[in-house]
Amino acid sequence: MTITQAVLAQRLKEAREGSRITQEQAAEALGLQRTAIAHIEAGNRSVSTIELATLAKLYNRDIVAFFAEDGVTNEEDALVALYRIDTDFRDNPVVKANVTRCIEICREGAQLEAVLDLSRRSGPPAYRLDPPRNPAEAVQQGEWVANEERKRIAMSDSPIPDMADLIATQGVWASGATLPDQMSGLFLHHPALGHVILVNFAHSRTRKRFSYAHEYGHCLMDRSQPVSVTTTGNQNSLAEVRANAFGAAFLMPAGGVTTFFRTFDKGAPSRQTLHVYTPMEEETQNSPVEAQRRPVPGSQVITYQDVAQLAYHFGVSYKAAVYRLKNLNISSQAEMETLLASDHHALSYLKLLRLWDEMEVEKQVMPDRELVSQVAYLAVEAFRREEISRGKLLEISTKLDIPGNKLVALAKAATAENA
Prior knowledge:
This protein is of the alpha+beta class. The protein folds into three domains: 5-73, lambda repressor-like DNA-binding domains (434 Repressor (Amino-terminal Domain), Orthogonal Bundle); 85-251, Arc Repressor Mutant, subunit A, CATH 1.10.10.2910; 256-332, no CATH class. It contains 21 helices and six strands. Strands 1-3-2-4 form a four-stranded mixed sheet, with helices on both faces. A two-stranded antiparallel sheet has the order 5-6. Helix 2 (23-30) crosses helix 3, helix 7 runs parallel beside helix 19 and helix 8 packs parallel to helix 11. The longest helix is centred in the N-terminal third of the chain and has 23 residues, at 93-115.
C-alpha cells in the first residue's frame, strides 16, 4: 500500500510516543538534532530507509507496519512486539507459554464470536487526548476520563466489586497471567483478537485490582499502539502517570470518597461559614442570615483507621487510599506523610478486624477464570447451534485446560433442551 508522507509521519510519532521515547532520544539514535525528528513527525522532512529501519528497531516495531493498511500487518505483530518489550517474554519459557496461551484463548474467543455472528468486540470508546505535557496535565486527563467513563457505564460513585468482570462487560478480554516480576500488567489489541488486558496474578489482590483499572485506562486513552506495558522501569512516564491517575479515580471516585467520610461526619473544614438565602433580602436589602458551623475539636481529623476502612470499602491498598485523599485535597501534605507513616498500624487494624485476608489474599481461583468462562460459554453456544463440531469443542477445551468430556456433555445437554 502506498501511503503519504503525512501518514508515515503520524505513524512514526505514535510509535515513538507509544514506546515512551522522547524526540531527543530518537534524534540521538539517528545522530541528528531534535528538530530533525520534529520535522519528520510534522511531515516536513522525508525519512530515509536507513533512518526508518533504525527508528523501527528503536520503537520495537516491524518496519512494514508503517506501510500496512490501517497500520496493521499480520496477526502475530502484536505478540511479536510484546515479546520484544521485555527479555523475559522471549527468554522465560514459563512466562512466554502462559502469555501465549492467554492470547490463543482470546483468538479462539474472537473466532467464536465471528462464527456466532455476534457484534464485533469494538470495546469501550477511545478517548482522543493530546499527549500530556507535564505530570499535572497527565493527572488531570486521567481523572477526567475516569469520571466520564463512570458516567458512561452508569456506575455512579459505588465501589467496583470485580474489576475483571467489569472490564469483560465492556468488550475487553481480561485475565490474570504469569508475567515478569517487574511487570504489573499489559494492554494489547489487534483486529484478530480485540482488546486484551493481562495482569500479574502473583501480585496481591488489591494491586491486581489497581492493575486492571490502570490497564483499562490504557485501553481508553492509548489505543493507537498495539501494546502498552506497565513495569517498574516506566512508571514515571507521562502515559503511566495518566493511567495511574485514571486507576485511582476510577476505583475511588471523588463523590464516593466524600460520601464515605460524610457517613462518619468527617472530612469537613474545621470551621464553616454558612449563608441562608431568603427572598425577603431582595426587597429589604438586608444581609443574608449567616451561621457558623464549628465541629467538635478534633472530630474532623482523619486517622489511619479511617483510611484503612476507606481502602477496604473501595478494595484498594492503604497507600493508594492515602494518595487519593491528598489528590482530592481532603488531606494536606503533612497529614499524608503522617498517614503513610502509620501504615503498620493500618495493617494491624485490618488484621484485627479480619479484613486483611479479604482484601489482600487471593482465593483459590483460576487466574484466567473470567477469560475461560467467556470462551467456554461461546464454545457451548456455537456447538448448540451446530456451528462447530465435537472435535472443535474438544480442541477448545484443551486450550482452556478444562475436561473435554465434561464440556461436551454440558454442550449436549444445552442442545437437548431445545430438541
